[in-house]
Protein 1
Amino acid sequence: ISLVLLTGASCAERDESAFILPLGKEPGRSLAARVTFNGQTAWFMFDTGAGAHTLARWFVDAAGIPFADSLSGGVRALDATGQLIGVRVVGRQTGWLPNGRSLILESAIVADFPPDIRKSEVGGLLNPQLLASTNHAVVLDLRVPELRVEPFDDAVRRLGAHVLAGNQFQRCVDKETPVPNLVFSVLVSAGDENNGWLQFDTGARVTSIAASSQLVDSVELIPGGETMGIAGRSQTHSTAPDLTISFGDHRATVDAQIVQRTHGGCGSDGLLGRDALGKCALVLSRDSVAIACDS
């Protein structure tokens, strides 16, 4: 699930000590954990494509969390299909994880989620890279799955991870919005000369690529199909079957969705989903990225 702010601030406060948090992997709750805010508990997905921590409107209402409308002015967002989403903002919130750790959000945006997400008791999206601190990175391991907080160098050594060079990834922060936000995109190649930028999106089941991207030049497409973003509006797509893409030192073959419109901005060629990242662990610090993938 990609959500891009259009309007940054310092990130949430964090416990500086390392910890490990097992995550769910059942359908509808991939990379999710139970989190309690204001006495209300729900599933929250750790989603690298969520530009900011995002709470579902149903959860905010159920938990009785007040809106901070003084912070909402000028905050807009786009979903993965490029559709504008109406959002509001809540102020500082303290959540509690199953391992007893607290999770303090300086602020978060609030959006209406589609009904199927509500049925899965998903209360929101937590941006894992915003949990990184000066001394600790966040490791989102899709293979286990689990989330760890530990020093960046320790994670790289433990995983044997490939550290991306500065020209292999983009770090994107919108400094105009009052809500903390951060996304990363990675340089992806398809063939010898076709390159593009795809945003890491662990909330997306399938990789999606803009039809205008060099990544799908001369690729034979199969028409048909629809995809839907968090705004609840559908978008038709074609499929690029068995598309082999490379990023970092990893190669993956995916049936990519080819869409006419993406969110634009960071990762302007599209979204790198769990079909490509499912055998990987992402090591995300405030300004560095490393990847460890199974062959």
Protein 2
Amino acid sequence: HTSPRLKCGIASRSRLAKSRCCALSGDSPWWKMDQEWPRYHRLVELVCSSSCDIVNALCSLADVTEVEPLAKSLLAVSLRYGDVLAMVRSCVRCEFASNAARPAQIFRTQNLASRVVGAHARMIGAHYLRRTLSAVVTALMAERSSLEVDPARAAACDEAALQQRQGALRLWGELFLARIMAPSSVREMPREIQDLLAEIRTAAEDLALDPKQVSALLGGYLFLRFFNPAIVAPEANGIAPSSPTDDSRRALVLVSKLLQVILGGIPSPPDTHTHTTSPTPPRPHTSPILSPPTP
């Protein structure tokens, strides 16, 4: 029951923090940030405080047009001067608190908390993504046959050809899933990501969600925010040495959308035409990649 005056004060302070955080980090190297430290030291202390009050306020106030540079700035400042994992944990808790009445929206919108969580995962897991996905992504980019299964995009194909493409797409989905869920891949997953999976599981269980909903949230974090962006843009994540062709990009998009429906109960977008090609997944809430980290 925050008073209107206090709300106004928090909003003003947070808007100032948004502009100053972006000015402090931006694309500047670390030495530039260190030079700016005397000017913004109080702001940095607020961002890196153990209470994460400013971070929580920003998660509530940031406009969708601001989240990309602001997420980058918060990660840069916290990584350099604070506890980045604590900051990301705070974003996770804020996301759950703001969507407690509508858990299906958690990590599904392009808000600040989702951006921070996804950018952190890809930053921490950059080497892991390259080790896990490079071989299979490169193989798919070398594939000459089209995987297009949307009849509107493949008007020249007859029913038999479409079924053949569905079978090929299903095979590629199985290959990607097998690589991601291989025991060696699960063991090598960065500890920070495992810790955040445990944090998400605990927050979901605190909302008394059923196992299917819990696995959907865990899958949403891992795939929507971690694996799929890297699969769709492999050149931006060091997974592929060059940009995919248009056909290869479309194939990567189709595989990423297929992965959404075969682990964690993530709904398939209506235009993917991948629901008929889905491999039979493991039971989501018993998948090893979604299990709590071992001590």
Protein 3
Amino acid sequence: VNRKKHVPSMYELGKHYVENSNTEKLSKGISLLERAEQNEYPDSFNLLGNCYLKGIGVVLDVKKAISYFYKAIDAGNLHAKVNLGQCYIEGNGLCLNQEKGFRILNEAPQDDPAAKFRIGVCYYKGVGVEHDVEKGIELLKEAVLGDDIDAMCYYGKLLMKGTDVEMNKPEAIKYFRKAAARGQAEAKFQLGRVYEEGIEDVPKDIGQALDLYKESSNAGFPKAYYRLGKHYFNDLNKKKEGIELFEKAADFYDVDALKELARIYSEGDGAPVNQDKADNYLEIAEDPQLYKSKKD
């Protein structure tokens, strides 16, 4: 009984380590989450599923991720429906079914900012539901006010470009910083780009940008592998590391990485010529969704 008392704090510590994406603490975080799972703590099922879905501190395993989401839902954690619905929407590990994904998102608690964010994106893009930009933006804003870090990053990108909202780069950077400080993988990537390019009053700082790309890739954001790989590839002493990072991004079906690898193996730039490999990468790049569904 006493041991059970410590499970929530064990879970919270594991969650903290995982969400802060510190590589030294990631494995410890996963270990704590697994111990919470062994004690049948429902929140740990959903978070472990998310780790397997994105390859955070564990080997990427979409099927295992989905089984964790179902386990969480069966244990009464309806917040896991947000992750499960998104898998249907993206065709990630499940047959692509955007209408079903949208229905499942709406079965999640509607006061959950994560659900508001995902449903907002569906309306904004017209995915699984009739296209309604205004309603989408409204839900995104509500999710941001609800402190959802994914919503902060998404809304920040709209503000940065002035897409369907008034452009406000300082506000966008503020959201990237806030979300990145709480471990949001893409926000770290977006903040890295701000430092790489020196946007607004943020001075250009390539070292800081690369650190953020590393943190972003550790937290499971594929484009960060590609961006970091580009920097390494352009350094003669790190070309091999650059190719390894492109290959990691390609594992997530990142089109830019797939095309770059096709070029590398076709031209023998930093690796021996391998036309079969080049053709294979190019073929996948033309329809990554098809290959992804075949693999899943």
Protein 4
Amino acid sequence: SVNLPMRIVAPGVKVVGSLMTVPLTLVPLQQQLGILAQKRWTAEPTFPAEDAGEIAPITMPHDMSVEVGTRRDATQDEVDAAYERAVAIQPGWDALGGERRALLLEEAANLFEEHTAEFLSLCQREAGKTLLDGVAEVREAVDFLRYYASEARRQFSGPIALPGPTGEENTLRMHGRGVFATISPWNFPLAIFTGMASAALAAGNSVIAKPAEQTPLIAALAVKLCHEAGIPPEALQLLPGAGDVGQMITSDPRLTGVAFTGSTETARLINQTLAGRDGPIATLIAETGGQNAM
């Protein structure tokens, strides 16, 4: 049988949505969105260096004359420093255990819900989504955080008993692999970005996250809230930028795995880059292709 959503997340957690047809919900939300429409957002590396990278404007996709904010691209030095921090913190983050990592992911889910209006504003203005699409995006991101929190508890809280055919005791302990890079697309700039990062974090990996170059602002807000929830900044680092930043990230020998959603062509390039590194074989999780008739 297929578990219903309420049986997947932690007991007692209520999955929250927004009733867009109810004036008591819609009118205050529209007022908030009107105020947030004036806000300018920024996305920059989690630990910005003094020598700044290129700054690019982020405009509304449906009206490119309107600037929503700016993206400050990561430099090679910042990528190198990010790996130093991620490698250093990963053993301690892994040793924290599944239960404590789950609590942090659940707190991040709570903060995402508290900041729904900001996410909806960015979904509309940065990603060009409708209001209903934005609501679905936020709910999916929250669901990812709570789902991977439950998986952290289930799979990483202690040894898992295995069969003992001859009477021996066999157990399995699972741990993070090291530093994971997540490279997410523009079409689900919050949900997929959050799902990739939360899965890697739940498993005890430190994460270097590069959002799509078109939608870094919503990712920056997501990372900020994760840090406020208690996830160490060194364990989850944002490195905005275009394809050249992705190349810097995936070519580093300290990288142990990549989770990617995007084009098949880019996935092949990542695979080739990983294969050409002077380092251990890295995992590549790639969701590629697409069915866009246009």
